[in-house]
Amino acid sequence: MPEDFVIGPKLGELVERMVESYQSDVRTQHIDRKYLPSKERIVQLLDDLLELLYPGFVGRQNLTKHNVAFHVGDLVPRIAENFFQQVYMCLCYMDEIEPPSCQHAKACEDKARRVIVEFLEEIPSIRALLAGDTVAAYDGDPAALNLDEVILAYPGLLAVSVHRLAHKLYQLDVPLMPRIMAAWAHARTGIDIHPGARIGRNFFIDHGTGVVIGETTDIGENVKIYQGVTLGALSFPKDDRGRVIREAKRHPTVNDHVTIYANAIILGGDTVIGENSVIGGSVFVTSSVPPNSLVTFQPPELRLKDRSMSKPDKPKPTSTPGQMPDYMI
Q: To 10 degrees, what angle do helices 105-121 and 68-97 make?
């Protein structure tokens, strides 16, 4: 790159144009504002939380019954400190962008402390849920070697682990952070679960890539879904001014002991999949399904043809050296 471009007048021109673009369109800049959580710190927090959930599998190895208490005693304060800073920033961020509800920063600090205490107290319960999810994955996949392999290698379990953490923060009304966590899991696994989705015990996502689970989805216990499944919204209810009613139930309910096969699409807040039902692959469901149902579509007719009889053999070349073969003329 020419030196005069880097340090010459063209650089000054570019700086002026960029600053002008920031001032003319505020939608994609965060300037003259104080509060914003750090995506990098939240990802680090996730790593620490996963280490707390899966000791010996994530982070420090060679733990024993003699040193594990020291390990947890070192990990929890580190989590709490980082957690407090990011939750505090998230709460103050919302306070900053909604001036009518503006409170003193002390209120955000107090709420952040309450959130952290309640969240950390839930970690043992979250671990119990994830133990059930791990067993469900092992029982649901004959290719699984053992529970260790599920924990170390299954993207579905990673996505569900992050979701159970993010969902608790969603319940505690922490903005931004749950979506950042969910987006990280989505990027790592290809599985997109909104933090608001309510998911029961013993949940298994097999393979996982392309799974989408919307915010107001309700999933019961012992549910298994495969790759490409969408639990989405059929339409967005609006108020009398045409604005989307964000609190409305938009996504389906899936009751206990349901299996949903690959690429099935289930849409609508009024759609309920009855318990013990099986939803076949690639079906499109927009209305409720009774319990104990098997939902499939009529498979298209397959046509088989013997390829060996479809074309005559090519003639062999009959040319002399330097002459083009007959079949190429």
A: 140
Q: What is the count of structural domains for the chain?
A: 2
Q: Tell whether pTM > 0.85.
A: yes
* 113 and 168 in a common domain: yes
Of 295, 259, 297, 291, the residue nearest 272 (C-alpha): 291
Q: Pseudo-torsion of CA 43, 49, 54, 58, nearest 10°?
A: 40
Rounded to an integer, what distance in angstroms lies between the CA atom of residue 133 and that of residue 81? Answer: 29
Give the whole-angstrom CA distance, residue 117 versus residue 110: 11
Cα end-to-end span (Å), the chain = 53
Rounded (5°) CA angle 273-274-277: 90
Is 219 within 8 Å of 198 (Cβ atoms)? Answer: yes
The whole-chain average pLDDT of the chain stands at 90
**Tokens 């260790």 appear where?**
148
> Could you give the percent of the chain with pLDDT greater than 90?
72
Asked whether the beta carbons of 303 and 320 are under 8 A apart, the reply is no
| CA 41 to chain centroid | 18
270 in Cβ contact with 288 (< 8 Å): yes
Tell me: do 145 and 280 sit in the same domain. no
Domain shared by 140 and 92, yes or no: yes
- 216: nearest Cα among 270, 155, 285, 284: 270
Q: Which residues are CB-contacts of 88 (< 8 A; sequence separation ≥ 6)?
A: 108, 109, 112
Rounded-to-integer distance, Cα 2 and Cα 20, Å:
25
Residues 39 and 179 in one domain: yes
Residue pair 45/21 in contact (Cβ under 8 Å)? The answer is no
211 and 80, same structural domain?
Answer: no
Q: For residue range 191-227, what is the model confidence (pLDDT) as tens digits?
A: 999 999 999 999 999 999 999 999 999 999 999 999 9
My answer on whether 162 and 43 are in the same domain is: yes
Q: What is the CATH classification number for the domain harbouring 286?
A: 2.160.10.10
